[in-house]
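FAQ: What does a multi-protein file look like?

Like this. Sequence, then tokens, then the next protein.
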Amino acid sequence: MNNSISRYVRQRSRGHILQNVRQAASTVSPLGWSTLIAAMLTAALFVAWQWVEMLACAIVFAVTFTTAVVLSFGNTALEATLDVASTRAHIGQTVNVQAVVSNPNTRPTASAAADLPITQSAVIPSDSTTMHKHFHVPSLVARQSTLITVQLCADRRAIITIGPLSVRRGDPFGLMRREQRLTESLTLYVHPQICVLHGRQSGIPRDFEGTPSRDVVDDDLDFHGLRQYEYGDDVRNVHWASTAKTGTLMLSRFVATRRSDSSLVLDTDMQGYTSADQFETAVSVFASIGVHWLTEHRTVFTQAGGLRARPRTPTEFLDACCGIKLSEHRTTDLAREAMHRSPRTSLLCFVISPAWSIDDVRRLAVATPMSAQCIIVQLSSTGERGVRMLPECALVTIGSLEDIPHISGVLQ
């Protein structure tokens, strides 16, 4: 029994010692290991060949390494919080990132260098960039804290990962490096620019699974109220019980229900857009239509490159739009993919690049079912604006995001 306890204690002690050794070894940088090995090697050469030059080199290397170890000492037992006023921003907005670094212990801490990485997504996945914000954390007495503010300019649509915040304590020679991670990372969504649309709800009327609208009609499924008969009204809608009671012809009124499952598809083919700004305009059009439909409480299925989502709220949809990127390969059958995800859709809207020819547009529209309305919004490379009613669909041509309100009637 006593032998087992002693063996257990020895194993725990050995494991604790090994852990401390590994932790200490991890603080030595590659340059530090090179300096230590150089000191040992030159010392060995002096012992073997009695070269005074080797002794001088060994002393320089050893003193440098020892000085680096001494300078890296210091209490860095810090805590920190990372916060932003809002995790969502619009293009052009300045975002203040606040880091509160505190000393929760009774002993003062040493000064340290803090590093805050900021990774910003790009339209092309390989172009994502990471920059580092470096700042100085002063020595803190017991229970003291310091506030550090970093300003970010949201200059384009992106998903920005902020953090994690870490502090680093080392020496001027770069031989020792002690790094401590203080926080987790935050995600900031920079929403695309959108244009507010106004209009009435659309969809297939008198559907059992339809969504009630704000309109009141004479013929539907959901009873709303009564009104007096007017010349030309359909007598099939006469409410005979109320007519007999009042002695006046009364007609039933209904809340209009419309099947409003909608599919919104964005063409993300890299070869179709002449510039990143043109693609950003397409994303803004895509986002504007999606937000408008979600505000009308529609069921919306969205598709844009790798994005396949059914957002519940406009904010959720805009968050997803922040991560839309260009694709290297063109999807030739956008309609089939959209109908596969939403076979009961009553309205399909495609936002496409200027590279699509009129024959491509017709083939895309023909692939949609006859029971669904089809609207195709195409960006114009010349800036022209117009609406063309084809037998298969409505083709809307726009030159910029500001053209959307002028053709909002077609989007209804």
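And here is the next protein:
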Amino acid sequence: MRDHQDAEERWLAKEAEREELALLRGAQRRAAQARIRARRYERQESGLHRPTRALVLAPGLRAEMQHRGLLKEWEPVPAEAPKAGQTLGGTGPHAGAGLTGRLIVALPETLSVPLERGVCWNNQPHVQALQAWTDRWGPGPAAGRSAAPPEALAERERSTALVMTTGDVVRAGLERVLQE
């Protein structure tokens, strides 16, 4: 792997020399850097360079999003919608069943926008049900448990199980890639 990385670094150095980056400033330098990035991306797609995480993840994520009905035009996320990690019923390291592993990936807009919007709009009825439950029985997973009857707790569990996170979708997409 180190040999491959060294080869990529040598290629980048040659490209910088070819574009005469050391002599360029401002807009000309940015344009030359963009050309180098475009050529590098082509090499990544063709397998000559190591691919980015997004490039490796994209086919599996796209398939998972298609499977879940997320690959379509969605209305923008409302400004008042909960942000990542704040959704009622969502998982996280402090929300009980949460996962603590992290995968940081810069997705192209063709995937990130429908992912974020689709998750938001798919979750809306479940989040509203959880908000109504919280308004009646109290906030937080442990609050109100002594006052809430078993049927209410079961209702909360059902609604929580229906909440989808972007992390759920990305992890499922990664599983698809790993199984290929």
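Q: Is there any per-entry metadata?
A: Some entries carry free-text notes. For the entry above: The chain has a mean pLDDT of 85.
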